[in-house]
TrEMBL record:
Gene3D superfamilies: Vaccinia Virus protein VP39. Residues 25-109 form the Methyltransferase FkbM domain. This is Methyltransferase FkbM domain-containing protein. SUPFAM superfamilies: S-adenosyl-L-methionine-dependent methyltransferases (SSF53335). One of its GO terms (molecular function) is O-methyltransferase activity. InterPro entries: FkbM_Methyltransferase, FkbM_mtfrase, SAM-dependent_MTases_sf. The lineage of its organism: Bacteria, Pseudomonadati, Candidatus Omnitrophota, Candidatus Abzuiibacterium. It comes from Candidatus Abzuiibacterium crystallinum.
Length: 254
């Protein structure tokens, strides 16, 4: 709560434990000229391409995503975004606005890892507190393969390349049903030949029962490599006054 560009909503946070962490200690003036949107970063060559994005920006997630609606969201294959169900910060967009933005750009909500806060003097009571925020997981809908991609840097990823990247993300989160849907979509669009599709479907069936961590197939090796990266992005847990779901997708990310 100490690194937001938005002012904390003291009327809300003061009701809950550890509200002192939302006390404003210093206000830093950032010139507008130093702030660039995702689209500007791509247009000016600072970033070549974004495939997947994980956002935890203390209430600014909508603004960041909205700043990429021209060049980033059309080619983005997935996102894990922190969303608020209550206004932790003043005048911040809530989950419904983030969700509508993502749906308008061809994404579907796959899962939400919910986080609950307990009110002061009640943290030792059994049960969970109030739903305050969560991490929303979005994947692109299958029908985006029917549309042409967009790029500002002269390079639009091929549909086969996008398919493989989406498979990787699906396997990171162990969303096997989505991965199977991708394989069937890829086959119907001619992005995978019949032999590839059958082989991958067979491997997915095996790893979904045996577990990716112990399986030695292509998907198993791919999963272990991606988990190394994901483990470095795990958030810290809370200290008793709050509780969260342990999984997002089908992986434990806390």
């Amino acid at each position: 709560g100490k690194s937001s560009i938005l002012k904390p909503n003291q009327d809300l946070v003061s009701q809950f434990c550890d509200s002192e962490r939302f006390q404003v200690e210093e206000v830093i003036d950032i010139p507008q000229a130093r702030v660039k949107s995702l689209d500007q970063l791509i247009e000016e060559g600072y970033i070549r391409q974004i495939d997947f994005i994980k956002l935890d920006a203390q209430g600014s997630e909508y603004g960041i995503l909205n700043g990429g609606r021209k060049h980033v969201l059309p080619n983005l294959i997935g996102a894990q975004v922190e969303v608020e169900f209550e206004p932790v910060y003043e005048n911040q967009p809530l989950f419904n606005e983030v969700d509508q933005l993502m749906r308008n750009h061809g994404f579907q909500l796959m899962d939400i890892r919910r986080s609950y806060w307990k009110r002061k003097d009640f943290q030792n009571f059994a049960g969970k507190g109030q739903l305050i925020f969560g991490d929303a997981l979005y994947f692109k809908r299958f029908n985006h393969f029917d549309a042409e991609g967009q790029s500002s840097n002269g390079r639009t990823p091929s549909k086969r390349e996008q398919l493989i990247k989406q498979l990787i993300v699906a396997l990171v989160y162990q969303m096997f049903d989505y991965a199977v849907g991708l394989l069937k979509t890829g086959a119907s669009h001619g992005l995978l030949n019949g032999e590839e599709s059958c082989l991958y479907l067979k491997e997915l069936s095996q790893v979904s029962h045996k577990g990716l961590g112990t399986y030695t197939s292509f998907f198993g090796r791919l999963h272990r490599a991606s988990q190394t990266v994901l483990n470095k992005l795990k958030p810290q847990s809370y200290l008793g006054w709050a509780d969260s779901d342990r999984e997002i997708g089908n992986i434990r990310d806390k």
